[in-house]
């Protein structure tokens, strides 16, 4: 889209609505409009100005975030039991995979688990008001059809619990739902939940979700059984992901940093050399965090690049060490990286373009290739939303 036309359109919009209306509209509809336009016109989603609860996704790198909302009262979250982090230093062996693929001399203990797929945002995708089926695939087996969810939710916010038993999503009306993988035991937990910037993120115990309410912007813990909500301060970004040890990471849209905190929002650190003044890169989209919080899969862009909107994007072009900011080398063999998801043992499912389709590479915690498998053609127009181990 012509940048001058975009500037004029945004200026016209600013004259017609108040700043609060613009922020609210950008937060809740930018990606939704992108889905609708992709379906109707085969055009890419419009780059928009977005902000939520003191967080802004800026069109220009030097834009300033709006002032945060007034102070909130800290409430202690209900106790949670983080999942135990398995060892990430298994022994290594060399072998040949059953399909003839030569393993990369890495751990024989790490294996592909179930990979959950949802639809990609494509020009020929489903209608934004239709429902679509998720699928799961364990390399070596056939894909399995899972529950049906609204197309918009499948693209924007659907998430799998760490124990692999339940899915959560927020529909277009702001209602958060949970169900078993096959769609049974479907229940609405509550209304008035953000469906784009902060989609429901499962805590490591698979019993609670962290959600953001649309009224007031409060973020907190939602019990997946009772629906009880408990406010927690310190969660003020977008696209949060949990590690098995309870570390939470999210994108701070004001300057493109990635923030890591504990499950109560108390401690706080950022990934070095990302988003801070003088850094080459910024990031507003992350998809997965290693079990110990030490590595993160995200989409990293030049700070002078195009930033996109407030909606979730699961594309990945880098894995970084969260303590040093250094990039983790991956065995891509010259192919284009698409997605990365950490499994419970610290290994990675790495999706790459391969010929006319895609392949998934199993990479151990040290960054060594174990094996790879070609994806079935039925999954070509889908994206990975979870790797369940």
TrEMBL record:
Transmembrane segments: 38-59
Ranges annotated as biased composition (Low complexity): 82-99
Protein's name in the database: WD40-like Beta Propeller Repeat
Annotated keywords: Membrane, Transmembrane, Transmembrane helix
Organism: Micromonospora tulbaghiae
Entry superkingdom: Bacteria
Region feature (Disordered): 63-108
